[in-house]
Amino acid sequence: MARLMERLRRRVLGPLFDRLGYDLVPATPDWAHRPVSPREVDRLLGSAAARLAQDIDAAGISCRHDLRGLVEEFWELIPRAPVRQRRGGSGFNGALQLFVLMRALEPDFVIESGVFRGLTTWIIRQARPEAELFCRDPDLSRLQYRDAQAHYCTGDWSTADWSGLDPARTVAFFDDHVAQGRRVVEAHARGLTRLVFDDDVAAHRIHAHGGPAHPTIAMLGALRDDPEPIRWQRNGRVFEQPGIDPVARKAARLIARTHAFDDLHQATGYSPARLTYVQLHPEGGG
């Protein structure tokens, strides 16, 4: 059946979509393609582990695990992922970074804002089997993986009462295409200090990303003092981020430390990741 569908795609559907200006590609995840010779696998894993070690240190995270061992564990784990996606959502590099971050941070509670097909939920569960997961997304109809123990809700995470969670044992992961500056302010108001963001892109690169959650973490510093708006064009539309944004200014003051992880493309050859770790000042600080 798979061969028949591939033949149909190449000979009939592919050319048809090409004439319409679209690409029709199989939904094969990038991790389905991998080196198999022991030497090249060792180089890939070693290179990824070295870069992740630098990032974990630069982020100020204390990790009691052997990073090479974590990368090897992930390498064996990811082919069993129940979610298959080629475009949208996390690829190999982003999933690896999230897996390592969750192991390093060791949260007992994880708030996930933006679930999409469920791959990141599955990754978090593999990294923290005993953690309590809270999954928020306005549209849960696209799930390919639903965690049996997680709490799902279509309401925005900011509308929930999180007072029952210990902030020191909680990590919030945002991949929801909502302004990252706003998420920082919301998280701080709820006492959270450890945040992970996907799709954190700089202003001069934001044009290349669909639905970016501006202002992004990378944009906050410039928006604090520069009145010049940030404008970009994508698919014929012009977007604008106002300068000296009050929310961006407040968010910038609340951040104690931020580190954008290496995209890992040079280390692994897979599609670049865009994960950023953010440490906030404790409640009352900043």
Automatic annotation (TrEMBL):
GO cellular component terms, semicolon-separated: endomembrane system
Protein name: Rhamnosyl O-methyltransferase
Organism name: Methylobacterium symbioticum
